[in-house]
Amino acid sequence: MQYYKFDSDGYYLEPVIAEYNEGNPQPDDVTDMPLPQPCFRPRWNGTTWVEEAPKPEISDDESAIWDSEAQEWRVEPVHEPVMSDIDALKIAVAEIARKTGVALEAIPEEVLERMEEKLEVALEEKREADRLKPGGKIRA
Predict the structure, then answer these.
(1) For residue 136, what pLDDT band results from cuts at 50, 70 and 90?
(2) Which position among 15, 32, 60, 130 has the lowest Cβ density within 10 Å, counted as fewest Cβ atoms?
(3) pLDDT tens digits for range 35-92
(4) Are 17 and 30 in contact (CB under 8 A)?
(5) Which of helix, strand or coil describes residue 29?
(6) φ/ψ bin of 26: left (φ > 0), alpha (ψ from -120 to 50), beta (otherwise)
């Protein structure tokens, strides 16, 4: 059976797989109550797990990031682009067309669609990389 070990202050340490009985009694520093999910800093209070690091209140222009090394939340501003990346691509293509003397209408729609698809894939990869920061930091 799976148990959950905690330290002398009640903070979760690790999972334990064991069978306890009369000949092998359950130690005082384990419980069979599962951890709540998500729970960033669980603490056993003797009867239940308590989240010791509740997510902070944030505004629409902020993001809460859990720092597992420091065992705390950080609040960072979210930087919204002034214009969408697709709009920026369209402006860039129009500028290239103007500088080269090629009429924007002469660029096949399929080419523009492929450029847009590639940009969307690149942006999604960047968003995923930004979400998973090195050092155990996970964007919420």
Answers:
(1) very low
(2) 60
(3) 988 788 899 999 999 988 777 787 777 788 877 777 788 888 876 555 666 677 777 7
(4) no
(5) coil
(6) beta
Q: b vs e for 50-80, b when ≥16 Cβ sit within 10 Å of the residue's Cβ?
A: eebeeeeeeeeeebebbbeeeeebeeeeeee
Q: What is the spatial distance between Cα 88 and Cα 82, in angstroms, rounded to a whole number?
A: 10
How far, in Å, CA of 131 to CA of 137, rounded? 8
Beta-strand relationship, 12-17 and 30-31: unpaired
pTM above 0.70, yes or no: no
Residue type at position 32: D
Q: Return the domain boundaries, the chain.
A: 2-54, 85-131
Can you give 81-140 as a three-state secondary structure string?
CCCCHHHHHHHHHHHHHHHHCCCHHHCCHHHHHHHHHHHHHHHHHHHHHHHEECCCEEEC
Instruction: Report the number of secondary-structure helices (H) and strands (E) in the chain.
Output: 2, 9
